[in-house]
Amino acid sequence: MSGDAGPAVAVPPEPIHWSGSAPFLALHAGVIAVFWVGVSPVALATAIGLYLFRMFAITGFYHRYFSHRTFRAGRSIQFLMALAGTLAVQRGPLWWAAHHRYHHRHSDEDGDSHSPGRHGFWWSHVGWFLTQSGTPTREHLVRDWVRYPELRFLDRYYLVGPILLAPGLLGLGAWLQVAAPRLGTSAAQMFVWGFLVSTVVLYHATYTINSLSHQFGSRRFDTGDDSRNNGLLALLTLGEGWHNNHHHYPGAARQGFYWWEIDLTYYGLKALAALRVISRLQPVPARVLERRRLS
């Protein structure tokens, strides 16, 4: 499918599961509380810090490790980073990897649930995530991971981490309000900014790769789909915006194929490899850079 395939189909492929989507919608509605709780430097720093940490857990581990196995990690690190990924409230590691592998098999084809060329922007951005049929984990696509009981546990109980994170932020804010009143924060402020705002921004930053990165940007390689490289989205998502590169060769630990393509996730993975936390980061073979090249 090319970028000139014609107008997007406006009709969604299936109805949204509204009752099942209630927690997701409640998170968004709760963001309006920023107008009542105010903001402080410490609350804003917490929101940014949790955004970056959880985005790295998604991009570095849910995506580049569990979906594509672009490096090696020990079982304990594998579990801890899968747990960190659940804090993003984007379901469990097995579900995420299975869905993403299916996407690569059917990118911008009829089977792709979040192709903007097939279903329009809003459906590809968020609608697909709110359907009932998209909730079960396709375990046959992640047979390499289902043998780990701890990963199956996290996949089934992926809300445990976020449910603990939210009151943890409330408690931290209450403690800071008493122990360090000069910081000007509170329990409500830390919860609203550290959990609600940070999570909602994280949702939509991640979703831009499904929607915007298949519509706006440049195409270096002929990948048979509409994937594009977008430097702004790469900054927002710690490197995921080099999406045409990634669809051309998903087996590399880096998505910014050249030094000027900033890929913060890859830099983080390199640091972990230097510390021997992970190993065997897969490079981009030289032959890949010239294969099916458009420009």
UniProtKB/TrEMBL annotation:
Its main location: membrane. It is a multi-pass membrane protein. Residues 44-272 form the Fatty acid desaturase domain. The chain crosses the membrane at residues 25-53, 157-178, 190-210. GO terms for cellular component: membrane. Keywords: Fatty acid biosynthesis, Fatty acid metabolism, Iron, Lipid biosynthesis, Lipid metabolism, Membrane, Oxidoreductase, Transmembrane, Transmembrane helix. The keyword Transmembrane applies. GO terms for molecular function: oxidoreductase activity, acting on paired donors, with oxidation of a pair of donors resulting in the reduction of molecular oxygen to two molecules of water. One of its GO terms (biological process) is fatty acid biosynthetic process. Pfam families: FA_desaturase (PF00487). InterPro entries: Acyl-CoA_DS, FA_desaturase_dom. The keyword Iron applies. It is found in: Membrane. Belongs to the fatty acid desaturase type 2 family. This is Acyl-CoA desaturase. It comes from Eiseniibacteriota bacterium.
